[in-house]
Amino acid sequence: MAIRRSATKRHGLPSVVQLRLAPTPAQADALTAAVQVCNEAASFISRLAWEQRTLTVVELHRLAYYPVRVQFAGLGAQAAVRAIARVAGAYANRRATKTRAHVFRPHGAVPHDARLMSWNRDARTVSLWTPTGRVPVPYTGRPEDLKAVDTLPLGEADLIYRRGAWLLQVTVTLPKPEVREPVNGFLGVDQGVANLAVTNDGAVLPGPALPGPIHGNGHVRSLRERRHRQRRRLQKKGTSSARRVLRRLSGREHRMMTDLNHQISKHVVREAERTGRGIALEDLQGIRGRVRAHRFQRRTLHGWAFAQLIEFSRYKAARAGVAFLLVDPAFTSQACPDCGCVSRANRPARGRFLCTGCGLAGHADHIAACNVAVRGVAGWAVVNQPHATGLPSARRDRESKPPASAGGS
């Protein structure tokens, strides 16, 4: 059984808060110039990297640092270093799918580190680098975000220009609580396309358990299908007014699904914390390559945001000190949690489960969530298996491996 335990930083948990900047017109012009020159420099470095097939950050730094400083006179040294790191990161994430040099948008987000910005928390201003010098820009935000910036260690930030507003997304380090032992077992969550999430308690999410205007999974599917038809109709029309409407609608479905995944993960973590349980989800990495879908179902499958829900649940569980595991998803909807019978015949229909061994019947997604919960208990026992050395099993296995020989075999 493949078990993956949640991975978090040892000394704290990273999180992101968003601040709204309030620059003067002159400061806004300076920030615009900084964003444009950084993105133009990144595109210039990207072309060099693609032509020379130099995609690692160290080799790319040797290749592009001095040429980009000469090409863009207003670009600072640290801004050039960050642009090189952005290019290397872009190719590292999407190298296999690239057929041409990556181009950075003129107003794309620009990362800032401690050498490109400084904070005055008392005055609530942040000093940002621009080609004409640093500008102290006032910031505001939600009370909880301002409190986090005032009290927590700050990391890197992204400067974003979006629809006429200047935003700063800042990484903060939260204190890491101890993970509590799941004394009452695990809360299993089955993820799917028809039903986004079903727990072994029988809760179907989204549903009545979640607030908001989304009434259920059928409502989500109808909204996404309606927006797909709307986008296709406007793209086919191709007029300037149609493109203007497409720009206004851009990102709306993504924001809806992100909000739903936040609500689902928050509900799951709160329920697990309230009942003293851990959280178990299926490890669905690579599922799109394993599943053969009909061409009419491919858009739905590739728009399935299961990885986002896993990551949201992971970091929320870490914040709350709730145990979190990813378990093997194989045959979770075909196995009986009572007698262990595994058969394709146990699924007479998509939403029905009827065990051919013991006769257990129920909704297939609910049965799958029960199997996920059982595998979570078994996986936690394996991960935390006691040993005479007193070390946890994961650390014991790591330290018991012999060192690799220098000469090889």
UniProtKB/TrEMBL annotation:
GO terms for biological process: DNA recombination; transposition. It comes from the Bacteria. Signal peptide: none annotated. One of its GO terms (molecular function) is DNA binding. The keyword Nucleotide-binding does not apply. InterPro entries: Cas12f1-like_TNB, Transposase. Residues 170-275 form the Probable transposase IS891/IS1136/IS1341 domain. Residues 306-372 form the Cas12f1-like TNB domain. Residues 388-409 are annotated as: Disordered. Keywords: DNA recombination, DNA-binding, Transposition. Pfam families: Cas12f1-like_TNB, OrfB_IS605. In the C-terminal section; belongs to the transposase 35 family. This is IS605 OrfB family transposase. It comes from Nonomuraea polychroma.
